[in-house]
Amino acid sequence: MAARVNYSVQNTLFLLNPLNYSINAKTTHFKTGINFSKNLMFPRKLRRPTFCTCAISNNDLQSSEAAETFVLTTPLYYVNAPPHMGSAYTTIAADAIARFQRLLGKKVIFVTGTDEHGEKIAASAAAAGSTPSEHCDVISQAYKTLWKDLEITHDKFIRTTDPKHEGIVKEFYSRVLAKGDIYRADYEGLYCVNCEEYKDEKELLDNNCCPTHLKPCIERKEDNYFFALSKYQKQLEENLTQNPKFVQPPFRLNEVQSWIKSGLKDFSISRASVDWGIPVPNDNKQTIYVWFDALLGYISALSAENEQPDLQTAVSSGWPASLHLIGKDILRFHAVYWPAMLMSAGVDLPKKVFGHGFLTKDGMKMGKSLGNTLEPNELVHNFGSDAVRYFFLREVEFGSDGDYSEERFINIVNAHLANTIGNLLNRTLGLLKKNCQSTLVVDSAVAAEGNALKDTIEKLVEKARIHYENLSLSSACEAVLEIGNAGNAYMDENAPWTRFKQGGAASEAAAKVSHVKFFFFQKHLQRNLVWPSFEKKEEVTQFFREEIFQS
């Protein structure tokens, strides 16, 4: 049975998005736009695009009712300042993982949000001449806007100023208090305002500077409530012994084990000097420590919008989390403090905590004082979300530190997205349009049977799947790129353009070659390159049509 090909040639990358086609048997039309900076490509003459239609079946996917739940979280980002590339990087990676898990047929709950309490927030608001509440509204919205621009497909966005979150925090606090794990005491020590944390002198640099923020810690003495962390040292050690994959990558596990073995100290979970926070139950003169508050956002986010805040109901809505994605600077809070808190409250631990590295620019640590910050909004505006997403997933080994340079960025995007994948789709559909009137005269799946390319592609797809499951995102991108290379090699070897010119049986063979290529592109490339993300847009960027895709 013949099928009309209506894929838009200029929309190559959109077809790689496995989420924006309908998972049903209905015909789906794809029309979208992609934005790239003009300095990426050389100008070419604009030609009219080709559009296409295809049908996709969900026979191989699990029904939503039977699907396994996969809860994935980013940190709740601190709103003392607008979002930066480090925050964007974590969220891009989380989004790629969420999309992959959806492809496996799982019910994904992708949680992100903002952490909005604490001393730094109040100070930032005062410096800007606004109230803490107004400041939080502005910065939280900036995160939502950036996530939209980056095509992030989160399911939940929690703000720690949400009333439902406050209710669950207070209930959790009361449960830990009832367990006998909270007590009151004086504390005196060196405090880093930026970390919102007391520091041990042995971990500080010269002049008592914080190793993360490079600013002197201040002497502070307070009457606070403390959490009995030391009580859970043995249980934390046993958890890591019995479940060594709890902290990943493995070298992060070694860091956590070292912290625990050095001896855990109880930590303060309230602040008497901070007004902007959730009041401690039965003591309005103190507010709950920002980390004790924010970590619970992973659970409160699971509550339904109009649901009465209740810890058990939230927990039963998807907890435990399958994966916490975080930066390595907040590993201690997630791999030591958080599990102990959950043990105290009788709540299951998350299944895995993954700590990724930092980003540098041109080999140097980024900082406003150095004038080399990398602003995500500017990157997306200049190059488009897809180029930004792909570069950081492909070029940064997930878990390790990674570096950005504009020259390498442009070279990678051109070589991989335009020259390999864009070229493959352009050649395939261009031939089908020119020689087959954009019509598949045979079933492309049948045409692929017995073809050596089929075995090659299926092996690469399995390779990509394994890498995605192991969170080896760079390797997964490389495996999928190999599919594009295999497709281009197949096209070169068979030279269908020559056979079409010969006519007769040679032309029919050429059509089969093109059908096979279309089949593998539609079935495998678009479903396994989960990093590009597009929402359907009304306008197609003029330059992208001019530069890459020609029919």
Automatic annotation (TrEMBL):
Domain Methionyl/Leucyl tRNA synthetase, residue spans: 195-429
Record family assignment: Belongs to the class-I aminoacyl-tRNA synthetase family.
Biological process per Gene Ontology, one example term: methionyl-tRNA aminoacylation
Enzyme Commission designation: 6.1.1.10
Keywords annotated in UniProt: Aminoacyl-tRNA synthetase, ATP-binding, Ligase, Nucleotide-binding, Protein biosynthesis
Enzyme class: ligase
Domain Methionyl-tRNA synthetase anticodon-binding: 446-510
InterPro entries named in the record: Anticodon_Met, Met-tRNA_synth, Met-tRNA_synth_2, Methionyl/Leucyl_tRNA_Synth, MetRS_core, Rossmann-like_a/b/a_fold, tRNAsynth_Ia_anticodon-bd
Protein name: methionine--tRNA ligase
Pfam family, one: Anticodon_3
Organism (species): Populus deltoides
GO molecular function, a single term: ATP binding
Cellular component GO terms held in the UniProt record: chloroplast stroma; mitochondrion
